[in-house]
Structure to design on (389 residues):
């Protein structure tokens, strides 16, 4: 059993399979899993508990939401108790790989997968090791956990449900204690075309003295879009963080389809996590949903490894059911909100939606933004999501 990609989905699947007695090899092209650690990595507490995440991967806890914009508008919702955590994504990946290894999986870093093809009852896979040496493996099953790159699955066939791409840039900033406290215990978002056209910005707290400052937007081939680095610098100045020391700069791409109907399997090859569009475009959230794909696939794959390959047949259907019917609605809302957010008229529409949510509490917003429970807000949210106003 070979898994290519040691992100949250791949490492979690390796741990689940090894814990079930499978012989698992997990490889990743990175020699250091703390590198290229792009992820806003904000989770609700329920997800932290469900996946038994240790304190070592938690950078901060949050209990509220702050929204700046559109325009001069400011809104704040705070709960009495923590509602979630902001993770250290590099530490998370490292811990998950170590957990897989402790369960018996073989973890090899700095290894590139150069190609594969179906061969007999399994796959023939070409790997290149850190020293440049090449080797060929013949696993019965092969998993593409390389994220939006889809390095093994390749691009999905053209369809009426194409991939929608969002690109983001994030800086880690070192600030003095008073400025860190200004943003502590809350997830802060900057919304509106005067902040980030066709996207949004954020400030999340990390360890004391460290903040995450980032922006993300959907890509629009029909519109000239300003460079992200310049937008992020403007955001830094506007928020009073211009003189903060930049500790790290990183970025990444999210690509998902709205309805998630692309193939999840090619013979002995199975897609996992972002490789089968589990990153949600509304908030660019991927970690929880990638782990859901692992939890869905693992028991089916264990059954296949035990000699029952037909057990894998319901994988796409079960994953769609696990993600839920609200998934496509949240994707439509993401397209409508972010792609259209480049004019004063779009700002006014968003302002009306946010005004309608002012009566909510912080817990309600967590249910809306993490569980996509739009139906709880009736005429305040559904008409906007469906394009009626």
């Amino acid at each position: 059993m070979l898994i290519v990609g040691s992100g949250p989905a791949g490492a979690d699947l390796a741990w689940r399979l090894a814990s079930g007695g499978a012989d698992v090899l997990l490889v990743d092209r990175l020699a250091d899993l703390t590198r290229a650690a792009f992820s806003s990595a904000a989770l609700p507490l329920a997800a932290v508990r469900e996946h038994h995440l240790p304190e070592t991967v938690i950078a901060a806890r949050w209990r509220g939401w702050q929204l700046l914009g559109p325009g001069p508008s400011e809104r704040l919702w705070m709960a009495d108790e923590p509602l979630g955590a902001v993770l250290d994504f590099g530490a998370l990946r490292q811990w998950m790989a170590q957990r897989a290894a402790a369960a018996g999986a073989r973890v090899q870093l700095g290894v590139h997968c150069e190609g594969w093809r179906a061969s007999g009852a399994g796959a023939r896979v070409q790997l290149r090791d850190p020293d440049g040496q090449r080797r060929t493996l013949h696993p019965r099953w092969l998993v593409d956990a390389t994220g939006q790159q889809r390095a093994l699955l390749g691009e999905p066939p053209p369809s009426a449900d194409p991939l929608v791409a969002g690109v983001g840039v994030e800086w880690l900033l070192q600030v003095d204690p008073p400025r860190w406290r200004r943003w502590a215990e809350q997830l802060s978002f900057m919304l509106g075309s005067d902040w980030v056209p066709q996207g949004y910005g954020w400030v999340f707290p990390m360890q004391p003295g460290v903040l995450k400052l980032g922006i993300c937007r959907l890509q629009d081939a029909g519109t000239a879009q300003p460079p992200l680095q310049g937008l992020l610098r403007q955001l830094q100045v506007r928020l009073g963080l211009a003189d903060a020391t930049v500790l790290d700069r990183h970025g990444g791409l999210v690509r998902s389809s709205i309805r998630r109907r692309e193939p999840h399997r090619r013979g002995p090859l199975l897609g996992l996590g972002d490789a089968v569009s589990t990153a949600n475009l509304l908030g660019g959230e991927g970690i929880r949903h990638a782990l859901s794909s692992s939890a869905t696939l693992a028991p089916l794959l264990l059954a296949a490894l035990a000699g029952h390959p037909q057990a894998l047949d319901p994988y796409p259907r079960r994953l769609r059911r696990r993600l839920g019917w609200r998934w496509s609605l949240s994707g439509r809302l993401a397209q409508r909100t972010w792609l259209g957010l480049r004019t004063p008229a779009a700002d006014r529409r968003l302002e009306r939606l946010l005004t309608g949510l002012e009566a909510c509490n912080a817990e309600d917003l967590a249910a809306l933004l993490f569980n996509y429970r739009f139906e709880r807000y009736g005429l305040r949210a559904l008409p906007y999501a469906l394009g009626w106003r």
Q: What stands out?
A: The chain has three domains: 2-40+89-156+258-323, 60-86+161-256, 328-385. Confidence is low (pLDDT under 50) at residues 385-389. The domain at 60-86+161-256 is CATH 3.30.9.10 (D-Amino Acid Oxidase; Chain A, domain 2). The radius of gyration is 21 Å.
